[in-house]
Automatic annotation (TrEMBL), chain A:
Family membership: Belongs to the binding-protein-dependent transport system permease family.
Gene3D superfamilies named among the record's database cross-references: MetI-like
UniProt keywords, alphabetically: Membrane, Transmembrane, Transmembrane helix, Transport
Chain ranges of the ABC transmembrane type-1 domain: 27-206
Name recorded for this polypeptide: ABC transporter permease
Taxon lineage: Bacteria, Bacillati, Actinomycetota, Actinomycetes, Kitasatosporales
Pfam families: BPD_transp_1
Species assigned in the record: Streptomyces cahuitamycinicus
Protein's GO biological process: glycine betaine transport; transmembrane transport
Membrane spanning stretches: 31-50, 62-87, 157-177, 189-209
GO cellular component: plasma membrane
Membrane topology, as annotated: Multi-pass membrane protein
Length: 221, 387
């Protein structure tokens, strides 16, 4: 039995392409979970990272929290939260967000903190307000690194969002969980392939965003 | 309010620093009861070794550092009474390495302060383009990014950016320290030219005493602990250093450097030794000098030759000794003339006119007499002679 045969069989079965358990539906669900989790993590990680990076304060506390958060096993956390809160979307979001906040927070903090201090000094000396310095001087230069933090967070979310299936939700994890339960390895391999492809697409998406959003003066080409 | 040496065209403001002290929480005193009157529309240089508080003093003028005691007045008004951003926008700020915004084009870098002040994009960019020309930048660079420019060009952009909103005051913190000496000289000359046109009140910080003497209308020499050692025009600094510290800081050759402030126009020139390359045997024999300066038919210097080696009609111009750098009596100083004489194999400096034709030569001894009488005449010229 060859993995490629599994992949081929899974994707050429027309039954896999429609209905509530079809690839488009599962893919859409997976993307929805991922985007929601990334948005929530960014909503926490970006402002805190920008502010601490700009003031240069709280770096040690951040590093501690981030390390602690990284040590938490996502799956274990999910089971624990489901036992405490019951089934639903929220129990899935919590471990995904906890997983994604540290890379966003730490890279954003580092990105802003390590911006060359002399343009910042010049901006302050020219009478720019602190918020303007952060958003118009520091952020554009820190952007490539901030995007790389978001990118690693996004890829981790996409891979980990499969756990949603363990608590009766949809997404591409459904194929893996159901496939394992049904001993349908074609399904398992097909689901895993889709997750991997989605991760690569995410990577490409961030590359494109970087091309569009980062100034040629910062990209240096 | 008008200062004798100030530029009458300018828009600069008078800055009075009144017994200002900066003490940090750990007890370090960066500036100690400093009082300084900075004349408007001229360049005042703060110079001293590192840790003398010169940068702290500069940064207190735009409130990047707040003084612990004392007041700073801008045109008679306490700078504490103005909102800090308003104050800073009225002062151009130039720092070492320029501190350009790498994500913005050159044009948009220069347009920064006008944009902050709420100018429209078109107006701000038009102003920025005008400033590029003023600081000697090719406008073809407008769409480039800072990383595509050399260090000297970046520093010109920094100066243009500081001038963009036409502030009365320009604060410059070691702006030319990070570029090589040739580029630095170009930037210094450019600054003097711009100042001649604009007449800003410029406060300039440097650790380089030569730069201070070249640029400053007034020079404040500071020493460790934020004390003012001497505050004087550069010529006076060189002729009458206040104490051993200032004398030591000025370096071993302050006597030579002071000659920059005496014009060479009064030097008596002789032409007896100046011979054209097609001279006859009689012409060659006439001067009672061992060394002859040979010129071409146009009167431009070719080099020195010893008379016993020269044959009329067959002067080998390629075997003459180099005449060194000639001086222009109308615009050069005694320092340039002396340098020219010291470098000459004949011990004579070559004087030329603006077109490079020889007007005469002058010996080291004659220059020495001129130096003695200039010193006896007391003070060096207030108007600085280009050196």
């Amino acid at each position: 039995m060859n993995v490629l045969n599994f992949v081929n069989a899974f994707f050429s079965d027309s039954a896999h392409w429609h209905g509530y358990d079809g690839i488009p539906q599962r893919l859409l669900e997976h993307i929805q979970y991922s985007v929601l989790a990334l948005a929530l993590a960014a909503a926490i990680g970006l402002p805190v990272g920008l502010l601490t990076g700009h003031t240069g304060r709280g770096g040690n506390a951040l590093a501690f929290i981030a390390t602690a958060a990284r040590a938490l096993p996502s799956f274990g956390l999910l089971v624990l939260i489901v036992i405490m809160m019951g089934f639903g979307l929220l129990p899935v979001m919590i471990p995904l967000v906890i997983l994604a906040v540290p890379p966003i927070l730490v890279t954003t903090y580092e990105a802003v903190r390590t911006v060359d201090p002399s343009p910042v000094d010049a901006a302050r000396g020219m009478g720019m307000h602190e918020s303007r310095i952060l958003f118009q001087v520091e952020l554009p230069v820190a952007l490539p690194l901030i995007l790389s933090g978001l990118r690693s967070a996004a890829i981790q979310i996409v891979s980990t969002a499969t756990i949603a299936a363990y608590v009766s939700l949809g997404g591409l994890g459904r194929y893996i969980v159901d496939g394992l339960y049904q001993r349908d390895y074609e399904k398992v391999v097909g689901g895993a392939t889709l997750v991997a492809v989605l991760a690569l697409v995410t990577l490409a998406l961030f590359w494109a965003v970087g091309r569009l959003a980062v100034s040629p003066g910062v990209r240096r080409r | 309010m008008a200062n004798a040496s100030a530029n009458p065209k300018g828009s600069g403001a008078l800055i009075r620093i009144d017994s200002v002290t900066k003490r940090y929480p750990d007890g370090t005193v960066a500036v100690d009861r400093l009082s300084l009157e900075i004349p408007d529309r001229s360049i005042t240089v703060l110079v001293g070794p590192s840790g003398c508080g010169k940068t702290t003093t500069l940064r207190m003028i735009n409130r990047m550092v707040e003084p612990s005691e004392g007041t700073i007045l801008l045109d008679g008004e306490d700078i504490q009474r103005r909102p800090v951003t308003t104050l800073r926008r009225s002062m151009g700020y130039v720092i070492q390495n320029a501190g350009l915004f790498q994500h913005r084009t050159i044009l948009d870098n220069i347009a920064t302060v006008p944009r902050v002040l709420g100018w429209g994009k078109q107006k701000a960019r038009a102003r920025a383009a005008e400033l590029m020309e003023r600081v000697g930048l090719d406008t073809a660079l407008a769409k480039r990014y800072p990383y595509q420019l050399s260090g000297g060009q970046q520093q010109r952009v920094g100066v243009a950016r500081a001038l963009a909103a036409d502030p009365p005051v320009l604060l410059m913190d070691e702006p030319f320290s990070a570029v090589d000496p040739v580029v630095r000289k170009g930037l210094q000359d450019e600054l003097l030219r711009i100042q001649d046109e604009l007449g800003k009140t410029i406060v300039f910080v440097t650790h380089d005493i030569d730069e201070a003497i070249k640029l400053g209308t007034m020079v404040a020499v500071m020493r460790e602990g934020g004390h003012l050692a001497q505050y004087a025009p550069p010529a006076e600094l060189l002729s009458h250093p206040a104490d051993a510290f200032v004398e030591d800081f000025l370096g071993a050759d302050r006597g030579i450097r002071r000659l920059s402030f005496f014009p060479a126009a009064e030097l008596p020139l002789t032409t007896g030794q100046v011979i054209t390359a097609d001279a006859t045997a009689e012409q060659l024999a006439a001067p009672d000098e061992p060394w002859l300066l040979i010129t071409d038919a146009d009167g431009r210097p070719l080099g020195w030759g010893e008379r016993r080696d020269l044959t009329a009609g067959d002067i080998r111009t390629d075997r003459l000794l180099p005449h060194g750098r000639p001086f222009v009596p109308g615009s050069d100083s005694l320092r340039t003339a002396l340098d020219s004489a010291v470098l000459s194999p004949a011990g004579h400096a070559v004087a030329v006119d603006d077109t490079g034709r020889v007007t005469g030569v002058v010996s080291q001894a004659t220059i020495g007499e001129a130096i003695r009488s200039a010193h006896a005449g007391g003070h060096a010229d207030e108007a600085k002679v280009a050196s």
